[in-house]
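User: Here's a chain of 232 residues. Predict its fold as tokens.
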Amino acid sequence: MSGAALTRSLFGLFFFGVCGAQDCPLHLTTSTVVVRYGDPVSVNCTVSEDHTGIGWEASEGSGPLTNNVQFVTWSLKHLTIWDIKPQCYVNFLKNGKHNQCEQELEVIVYKTPDSISISAVNHTGPMLEGKQYQLQCEVQNIAPVQNLTVKWYKGETLEDQTTYDNLTKTPLNVSSTLLITPTSADDGAQYSCVAELELGPEGPEPHPADTSEPLTITVHCESLMPVLTASL
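Assistant: Prediction complete.
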């Protein structure tokens, strides 16, 4: 246990009450912060009343219980923890009673993919008109998958999209498939897939997005079988 956490735990033994969220005199710069893996992060926590100690508790970046200040900052030069839950807490007197309350900061850590590629499954060379084929998009080492949408395009036209419900916070490899039945008009068409991270209102705009190299398809008409006729 960190020194800050131990101080908080020991101090909490002397408290008689914990205030509700509506009574908590703490205010965070933001309730949710979105950070690219490895980037710096910094959030202030301000107290609006007299207090007997304020501090941050986190697996990294904890600060000591501090008096005679109105705000404390949780900051890291490089955020490299995928699942971190910093909490700002304050001890104070209210109506003659000792109270303690806290505000938790939601941290969303994201990473764009190492690579994204598209291929035809179990097929090489020209495609035959009217036959069904499966295209596959491979996205390597991206997080968080629950915020990922893989979008399929034919040229500039959105054909389909895939979302994911995996709640794992660390990077994963994922794939998406698209079924196509090309016609002769699709000869030379270019398909591509885009891995887009939609990270909410606090996230970067435009959304982080990586696009595969296009897959150009060649479509041949299926040859007609020769019809043999007997001469009289």
